[in-house]
Write a structure and sequence with these properties.
Blueprint (H helix, E strand, L loop, with lengths): L7 E5 L12 H13 L4 E3 L12 H15 L6 E3 L5 H14 L3 E5 L8 H13 L5 E5 L1 H4 L5 H7 L5 E6 L4 H10 L5 E4 L5 H6 L4 E4 L6 H12 L3 H17 L7 H9 L16 H29 L5 H16 L6 E4 L2 E4 L1 H13 L2 E6 L2 E6 L6 E2 L14 E2 L2 E4 L2 E3 L4 E4 L4
Parallel strand pairs: 1-2, 1-8, 3-4, 4-5, 5-6, 6-7, 7-8, 13-17
Antiparallel strand pairs: 9-10, 11-12, 14-17, 15-16
Helix pairs in contact: 1-2, 4-6, 6-7, 9-10, 10-12, 11-12, 12-13, 13-14
């Protein structure tokens, strides 16, 4: 793969669990789809955010398999693989490579605190064990050891050590790496609140926790920085600042899972020794989500009003897909309850009708029969066990305004229903 595909915003994916602490693979698949619809630049399963220390090997392989299946070779997959033993890290990488990865993210060994020479020999051995790109991960706050800029730059000379995720919080150290690294060496921020400052001075992107919650906005932040639009990027950064702060008010991924739970995307379950957020954290997350909802609504409404009369179909499709994605993920709704009364967002209803208007008729096949629908309404497979509520109006299920996990209402988008039709 081209190494520049690992620039931009990558999401450190959470791992959803059910109440019985089993992995919720269906919810995980939905989270990956949500990231891809937000046009995330790459995906990072099996990292710290994914509670990987509490996962069994078969669970790791299934989560990676699902990620690859949804990525379809178009969105790069960087699998977390680091352990605090060189031998066990290599063994873990060999296991994951059987499922398929585009690159590995390898954290510095934790708890046993190797010297700089030990770090160099550790990563050198790892790089020599694989033909895949290796991205090093420096996070001394979790591991108890800091990789210096000198050690990083020495390792950057090894062919398939292609980058570093830097979460030391030491700007002088990171700046030294940016200034002296080979041109093709990728520096990624490991802290969401440092993306603006680091990318403004030469870093290439971020492996993000906040993008679990607000993927579209994190993509927008990074793409504005890539384009040199610092003023726009700064505006987005300031609007996301409370999310950056709240995502680490308790140990990651506790706040991120609280947010995703409040959005109805997962159950708020973590594997011990981690437990769900405290009430004060939950309240702060809720306040943020209400604010970001207004932020997203205002932006999408502005884009819709500026585009709905345009004859540029490519531009119109781009805006409509953003609106459709926000509807399907529950970020916006056609109608909401405010002070006990239902309030209709009329512009969203208009946007859905606009989606039909700009669509082109396309023939689909499903359930042994053919039918036609607009190409703006993608056909998705739904199994009989998918727990999607049927709505009046035909034999198909249309996903529209989000109600809760597994449920939708306001017929808008056509689904092909295997076993239902």
């Amino acid at each position: 793969m081209k190494i520049n595909k690992l620039k931009g915003c990558g999401t450190a994916l959470v791992t959803p669990f059910k109440q019985d602490l089993q992995v919720d693979y269906d919810a995980f698949r939905a989270l990956v789809k949500r990231q891809i619809m937000a046009e995330i630049h790459f995906l990072v399963p099996l990292g710290t955010t994914g509670e990987t220390p509490c996962l069994e090997d078969d669970e790791k392989m299934e989560l990676l398999r699902i990620t690859n299946e949804e990525a379809r070779g178009k969105t790069p997959v960087v699998a977390g693989a680091g352990l605090n033993s060189t031998k066990q890290t290599i063994k873990n990488m060999e296991m994951l490579a059987k499922v398929g990865v585009d690159a590995f993210l390898v954290v510095t060994p934790y708890y046993n605190k190797p010297t700089q020479e030990g770090l160099y020999n550790h990563f050198k051995a790892i790089a020599e064990s694989t033909d895949k790109p290796v991205i090093m991960y420096n996070v001394p706050g979790r591991t108890g050891v800091n990789m210096t800029a000198q050690t990083c730059l020495k390792l950057a000379e090894i062919g398939n050590i292609t980058g570093i995720k830097e979460a030391s919080g030491n700007y002088a150290q990171i700046s030294d790496i940016i200034r002296n690294a080979p041109d093709d060496f990728i520096i990624l921020s490991g802290n969401d609140d440092e993306v603006l400052s680091l990318m403004s001075t030469g870093a290439h992107g971020v492996i993000s926790v906040a993008s679990n919650v607000a993927p579209e906005k994190m993509v927008s932040l990074v793409e504005n920085l890539q384009a040199g639009s610092i003023t726009n990027a700064a505006s987005i950064h300031h609007r996301l600042a409370s999310l950056f702060r709240n995502c680490f008010i308790e140990s990651n991924p506790i706040p991120a899972k609280e947010a995703l739970s409040q959005l109805g995307l997962i159950e708020n379950v973590l594997r011990p020794p981690l437990y769900k957020a405290q009430e004060t954290t939950a309240r702060l997350i809720n306040e943020y989500l209400q604010g970001i909802k207004t932020f997203i609504m205002d932006d999408l409404q502005k884009m819709f009003l500026e585009t709905c009369e345009s004859e540029d179909r490519e531009l119109s499709l781009d805006v409509f897909i953003k609106i459709r994605t926000a509807l399907e993920s529950g970020q916006i709704r056609v109608a909401e309850k405010v002070n006990g009364e239902w309030i209709v967002n009329t512009w969203i209803k208009s946007a859905i009708l606009w989606g039909f208007r700009i669509g082109i008729m396309k023939e689909y096949e499903g359930g042994g029969w053919n039918y036609f629908d607009k190409d703006t309404m993608p056909v998705l497979d739904i199994e009989i066990y998918s727990s999607v509520r049927m709505v009046p109006g035909g034999t198909s299920v249309r996903a529209g305004a989000y109600v809760a996990k597994g449920y939708c209402d306001h017929a808008s988008f056509v689904y092909k229903c295997r076993g239902l039709c």
